[in-house]
């Protein structure tokens, strides 16, 4: 079992957290709102993934860089962290663009 991919995801989430803290874009500006936004996004995408797995559209695939731990059949634990990274990146981008355009928080 290797944690290379999970480690990369956690490192990336850490980098986003540092950017968020530095510029107070999401969790350092409005923590509850940011948590709801990222949480709803992750849950929505996990449901999407689950549906895709049930319908046979998605498959886990094999990689020597993944832990092998599963949240559900064919749903690796890394997927939840990837989706959190995706949602957090989207939220920070949105907030940064709002600030750049001069819109109030």
Automatic annotation (TrEMBL):
<feature type="transmembrane region" description="Helical">
    <location>
        <begin position="35"/>
        <end position="59"/>
    </location>
</feature>
<protein>
    <submittedName>
        <fullName>Lycopene cyclase domain-containing protein</fullName>
    </submittedName>
</protein>
<keyword id="KW-0812">Transmembrane</keyword>
<comment type="pathway">
    <text>Carotenoid biosynthesis.</text>
</comment>
<dbReference type="InterPro" id="IPR017825">
    <property type="entry name" value="Lycopene_cyclase_dom"/>
</dbReference>
<keyword id="KW-0125">Carotenoid biosynthesis</keyword>
<keyword id="KW-0413">Isomerase</keyword>
<keyword id="KW-1133">Transmembrane helix</keyword>
<keyword id="KW-0472">Membrane</keyword>
